[in-house]
Amino acid sequence: MELNPLQYPIGKFAAPEIITPEIRKNWIKTIDEFPDLLAIVASKLSETTLKKAYRPGGWTARQVIHHMFDSHMNCYIRFKKALNEDNPTIMPYSENDWAHMPDGDDAPIEWSITGVKSVHQRWVYLMNTLQESDWTRTYFHPERGITYPLDRVLGIYAWHCTHHLKHIESVL
Questions:
Q1: Does 28-170 carry CATH code 1.20.120.450?
Q2: Vertex 137, ends 134 and 140: CA angle to 5°?
Q3: What is the pTM of this model?
Q4: With contact defined as beta carbons under 8 Å apart, do 18 and 85 qualify?
Q5: CB-CB neighbours of 108 under 10 Å
Q6: Secondary structure tally for the chain: helices H, strands E
Q7: Sequence ranges of the domains in the chain
Q8: CB of 31 within 8 A of CB of 153?
Q9: What is the pLDDT of residues 17-35, one digit of tens each?
């Protein structure tokens, strides 16, 4: 089945068979650089483009920006739980419902851009202190029925940064 390029402008995430320290370093760099890239792209958005969906039936640019904060804040908390508990079951949430709440639909994007910057600063700092064995720590996602090791989660969220940045750029 062919992927919709508007929905998946960089394709779906595909984890390498072996996640090396070098791969992790590059993914952490993506997480570290993302807030500045997001701010640059967001500075080019007008009120009109903020209301524009990146694809038919998709979220608006404003909702995508707020989603990035919601999602990455949740991931940071999941990371910490995995580092402090044995394979915790995380609490899922409805991304779509959150995107359509008043703070996703109408709030100033600067709030989420600032939030992303703060979460990413803490997250990158934390990740740069991890030992090799920490990357094998896991959490369980009950809706998906999948246990995720932290190194794979890192890759997913590095992909997530680029994936949604392309969505936001597409409305320009």
A1: yes
A2: 160
A3: 0.96
A4: no
A5: 13
A6: 7, 2
A7: 28-170
A8: no
A9: 999 999 999 999 999 999 9
